[in-house]
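Entry:
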Amino acid sequence: MRARLRETAEELAGLLWREYIVYRDRSGEVVIRGEHVQRWISLAPAGGSDEVLVRAGRILDGGTTAPARSETVVPLSAGMNDLAAACRRLLADAAAAPAPRDPGAARGGRAEKAAKARHGRKGRHTGLGSWVVIASVLGVVGLCAYQIVVHGG
């Protein structure tokens, strides 16, 4: 079945996109990536021996794949045109769905808010807490210098 999936994926990719990459992922699914359309399709064996689970999703910025937006089971005996039509429907669903949030963007959003908060302070770059630490350190250094000068260290 794995060899048949790979052959089916190659033929299907040629019908769907002019540029594509076909590979097998860790779970054994065959994945077709269309980088130019920022979409992916995977084919995996389904419950029946003649059925294939087709999943479709988006490719995020940076090349990572978002989770599948939609999936369906298609019998391979239906033919390549029916399989391609099912994939086109899934791809249309993935395109119509709202863009997934990039997990890295959430961290970037917090960093942007923190940067705005820092720049919101007019002219003050060092916080009050930092000045207290600096004054304490200078006080300790001054006290040590005083002890050395007075007591001859």
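The first helix runs from residue 2 to 16.
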